[in-house]
Amino acid sequence: MKHNFTFLLILFLLAIDSIQAQEWRHLFNGKDLSGWEQIGPGKFVIEDSTLKTVGGMGMLLFSGEKFSDVVIRVVYTVKDNDANSGVFIRIPEKPKNPWKAVNTGYEVQIDNGMRHLHNDFHCTGVLYSLTKAMSYPQKRPGEWNTMEITLDGSRTVVHLNGKKVTEYNEGDPVPAEKRWFEPDRGPRPVSGYIGLQNHDSKSTVYFKEVAVKSSK
């Protein structure tokens, strides 16, 4: 009887661990910038419990830990279709400037204006200038979008509002670098820091949620 109880207790604890692993952990508390660090020009301010981009080009780094094998959920809205921002992933080391993040990590782009310019490698949801958009599901300005970025080993998958936008495996072919501001080509690490971009003074983007959970 005692052995049965012990066995059931172990199963119960394993079930609890499994449930907890699937719970979202919020990295932005809606009140302040605890856990975050501004890198480069511009800033993020708290407005109505959201992170608002101001000026740039800079980034807000979640500086406490690196992430691997997670789903990153980002809920955002834009002031207008040309608002430019992004979510940085797989940054190997804490960057001293935002360009280091561009060139050593990946930027999951936010820029719906590029869709209308038929630039499938620079629009919302792609790995900026590296992958091509499969769909264009960003909502109208003022409406909230839910972006989920899955980091699964060396594979990166981006969904926006329930639709897949891009999928990339390390080593997949990518276009040649065409402009000076496009990121360096080359492999990125399995584990890295994440951050949010404040791109320029004309781009206003609001983030009300940044959360992670295990992708396993």
Mean pLDDT: 91
CATH architecture: Sandwich
Molecular shape = globular
The chain-level structural class is: mainly beta
Give the low-confidence spans: 6-21
- Here the CATH topology equals Jelly Rolls
Q: Strand count, sense and closure of the main sheet?
A: 8 strands, antiparallel
Q: What is the overall number of helices?
A: 3
Q: What is the rounded distance between the termini?
A: 34 Å
Oligomer: single chain
Order of helices and strands: HEEEEEEEHEHEEEEE
Superfamily (CATH H level) name: Exo-inulinase, domain 1
Report the strand count.
13
Helix content: 10-25%
Would you write up a description of this structure?
The structure is a single chain. By secondary structure, this protein is mainly β. It has a single domain (26-214), classed as Sandwich (Jelly Rolls), CATH 2.60.120.560. It is 14% helix and 39% strand. It has 3 helices and 13 strands, in the order αβββββββαβαβββββ. It has helices at 2-21, 98-104, 113-116, and strands at 25-26, 36-39, 43-47, 50-54, 58-67, 70-78, 85-91, 106-110, 145-152, 155-160, 163-169, 192-198, 205-214. The strands form 2 sheets. Strands 1, 3, 4, 6, 9, 10, 11 and 13 form an 8-stranded antiparallel beta sheet that branches. Strands 2-5-12-7-8 form a 5-stranded antiparallel beta sheet, with helices on one face. A hairpin with a 2-residue loop joins strand 9 (145-152) and strand 10. The protein is globular and about 40 Å long. Residues 6-21 have low confidence and may be disordered.
